[in-house]
Amino acid sequence: MFELISEKLNVNTTYVTKRGESAMTVLSSFNKEEKIIPEGYSVEYGDNYCRLIIMNEEDAMCTENLSKDALTKELEVTSLLGVKGFLGVTLKDTNGNVFGTLCVMDREEKQFTEDDKKYLKSIAGVLSHIIELDRAKYNLGFLSVPIIPITKGVSILSVQGVIDEVRSKLIMQEVLNYGAENQIEHFIIDLSGLVILENAFPSVLFDMVQALEIMGISTVITGVSPSFAKQEVNNTQLKNLNTKTVKNIESALDNIGFKLTAK
To answer: Which Pfam family is one of this chain's hits (predicted)?
Structure first.
């Protein structure tokens, strides 16, 4: 698709960025001849063209020459990349939320028409549906609830991937049913595979720990990464949970009176 865009608009480079908390990162790119934009390239939000695209009422920005345009000539990225012709449009998901941008650029000056802008916007509309399908596929890959029995009364819940609303209901139902049917006394909840989106800790984990407590099942949380700990350091809801947090599964087993021994 990117190659077709580059051919249609007669440009060297086409790429998609994703909007992060403080920077825009290139997710995918096509460079017809010279490699101008590599995948993974990231620029702080205040010093990139994407901010100008997203802030524009038309959800688009184009310029014949970035080094002469009043809005872009002073940006550090302009001198670093050394490109001139540029056209970019806002890329949104199907709910209208800004995902990132779809952009094209070239070393030479380019005069983009209104038809060019409409064309790129139409491609962005197609990409928005592809993004939703990719997200759905990614989430479906984690729909299972991996519960690992260790010994009588003790099991590990390995929380993996993104927890959306569908998975939240599934996890709560499966874990509580499993706890009751198997007479579980201790659940070790391993968060090492958890993917947190937009800094939002899944509320189902709070509800699940509290529900298990009501059932008389104690919990121990493990697999907390440094970045996760830093993010949730002021989370009072997490601090008030009646659970313990340890560094790894071995420590969790030790906490409830079990040890791993080699044969």
So the answer is: STAS
